């Protein structure tokens, strides 16, 4: 990451709207991927990368995902989710947990896409109020 931002800061990577398709995230992604390939081509980089990955694999820390899931199951969020109406909970399940688009959730739930958006907005508002 640092090499990517240094390349942008130093100006060695130039933004060209026509080449990047007006997508800054894609532009940064290309710079980062090139920097990574360059680093991996360096002498001994593969060995250092394997060692770093091995150290990470053997850590006994709880992952961020596990901490969030534990908070969902046992924290205030679980209670707030239970208090939502089944319709609002179903929309959150489809769009947030299952990762469906609004259109896909509408097909799954048998409701119009606008209703999915409205229910998602209401669910987020109720959760925000319950957790405040």
TrEMBL record:
Q: Which UniProt keywords apply?
A: Sigma factor, Transcription, Transcription regulation
Protein name (record): RNA polymerase sigma factor
Keyword Repeat (UniProt): no
- Family recorded in the similarity comment: Belongs to the sigma-70 factor family. ECF subfamily.
User: Key word Transcription regulation present in the record?
Assistant: yes
Q: Which InterPro entries match?
A: RNA_pol_sigma-70-like (IPR039425), RNA_pol_sigma-70_dom (IPR014284), RNA_pol_sigma70_r2 (IPR007627), RNA_pol_sigma70_r4_t2 (IPR013249), RNA_pol_sigma_r2 (IPR013325), RNA_pol_sigma_r3/r4-like (IPR013324), WH-like_DNA-bd_sf (IPR036388)
Q: Which organism is it from?
A: Streptomyces prasinosporus
- Where do the RNA polymerase sigma factor 70 region 4 type domain residues begin and end? 77-127
Q: Which residues form the RNA polymerase sigma-70 region domain?
A: 1-44
- By its UniProt entry, which PANTHER family does this protein fall under? RNA POLYMERASE ECF-TYPE SIGMA FACTO, RNA POLYMERASE SIGMA-70 FACTOR ECF SUBFAMILY
Q: Which Pfam families match?
A: Sigma70_r2, Sigma70_r4_2
Q: Tell me the organism's taxonomic lineage.
A: Bacteria, Bacillati, Actinomycetota, Actinomycetes, Kitasatosporales
